[in-house]
Structure formats: C-alpha cells, structure tokens
Amino acid sequence: MRNLLLIVAILYSFVLSGCGYNTLQATDEQIKASWAEVLNQYKRRADLVPNLVNTVKGFVSQEKDVLLGVTNARSRVGGIQATPELINDAEAFAKFQNAQGELSSALSRLLVVVENYPELKSDANFRDLQAQLEGTENRITVARNRYIKAVQEYNIVVRSFPSNLTAMLFGFQTKPSFTVENEQDISIAPKVDFNVPDPTAK
Q1: What pLDDT score was predicted for residue 82?
Q2: I need a surface site. Which of 2, 59, 104, 110 has the fewest CB within 10 A?
Q3: Gap between the Cα atoms of 40 and 35, Å rounded
Q4: Has residue 2 got a pLDDT over 90?
Q5: CATH number listed for the domain at residues 35-152
Q6: pLDDT at 198 over 80
Q7: What is the rounded distance in angstroms from the CA atom of residue 139 to the CA atom of residue 38?
Q8: What is d(CA 104, CA 138) in angstroms, rounded to the nearest whole number?
Q9: What are the distances in angstroms from CA 197 to CA 50, 123, 191, 192, 201?
Q10: What is the pTM of this model?
Q11: How far is Cα 134 from Cα 195, in angstroms, rounded to an integer?
Q12: Which tens digit of pLDDT belongs to each residue from 7-42?
C-alpha cells in the first residue's frame, strides 16, 4: 500500500510539473521579488521628499502651493497600504499607481519652480538631494520594468494551454501591471514649428 501511494505521489508530481504548476510557482515568486524592489525604491523616494521640501522651503517660501502639492501627494502615497496582496487587486493597484503618479507630477512641478532660483540650484544640500532623487527615479524605472517583465511572463503562463487549466485548478489569476501614467498626453503628437525667424533677415 505504501509503495502504491509513493507511485501515485510521483506520478502526481510529474503531472503537476508537466502542466505548468512549477512554472506558475516560479513566476509568481519572481513577481513578489520584483514587487518588493518596486516598493523599496518608491519608499526611498518618499523618504527623500521631506528633506527636499524643507530645503526648498528655505529659498522659495512664496511657492506655497507647489510645496503643499508635494507634501499632499506624499501623504496620499503614504496612506495606501502597499502590501504584497496589492498586486492581486487590480483596483487597489491602480490607486497605488495613480498616487505614485501624482507624487511624480508634484515633484516635477517643484523642480520646474526651482529653475527660477539660482541661489537654490547652487546650494550644496539641494544639489545632493536632487542627485539622490534623480538616482532614485532611475532605480524606480528599472524596478518597474523588471516587475512588468515578471508579470508578463507569469500572465502568459496563466493564460496559455495547458498551464491555464492548472492555474484555474489552483486559483492562479492574471496580475495587474504598470501602465502609462499620461496616456492621453503621449497620444498627442508634439507640435514642431520650423518657422523660426532668421536673425540675419532684414
């Protein structure tokens, strides 16, 4: 009897591996690891914001709306519980992405304002924070790309035959991925004007 159970267990393991079960597990774990890195980089950025705002505030106190916008956007990001389960909830994931997009936009507006203050741009503390922010934005881009690739590989397995049958049997479902935050903006072709006046023309 024991030998029969052992044979059944071995056959069952072969069936599961042949139907994509192991691939589903591996790709799901890759998503979790990639998501953890995304969260790590977003947290790094959120941690930089208070120092950045305080440094800028000393030079541009009259730009209260811009500073408040950054602070509020960071607060909204902090108000979302970015748990591992968030990647299984498309609606929660979209809220997370929107909040991060708002913070990105607020930081961009802040850096545009900074251009009007040469003394701030030359401040060593600000330059250091700006360099850290730029490095973090690059890390966020890399982490997001890895997550997108991991989700793509996983979703292909979940939706492909015969592994889709295994996915249905064990409750594996497709996971949401990052999308373009400003889809409407990038769908509009930029205006290019070649009619620049010739300074030598009389």
Answers
A1: 79
A2: 2
A3: 9
A4: no
A5: 1.20.1440.20
A6: no
A7: 9
A8: 12
A9: 45, 38, 17, 14, 8
A10: 0.77
A11: 35
A12: 555 545 545 455 788 899 999 999 999 999 999 999
CA-to-CA distance for 156 and 34, rounded, in angstroms? 17
| Tokens encoding 25 | 């597990």
The 8 Å CB, 24+ separation contacts for 63-71 are 63/113, 66/106, 66/109, 66/110, 66/113, 67/110, 69/106, 69/109, 69/110, 70/103, 70/106, 70/107, 70/109, 70/110
Closest CA to 120 of 74, 59, 38: 59
**Residue listed under structure tokens 């208070």:** 50
The residue ranking higher by pLDDT, 127 or 5, is 127
Q: Which amino acid is at 14?
A: F
What are the structural domain ranges in the chain? 35-152
Whether 182 shows a pLDDT value over 80: the answer reads no
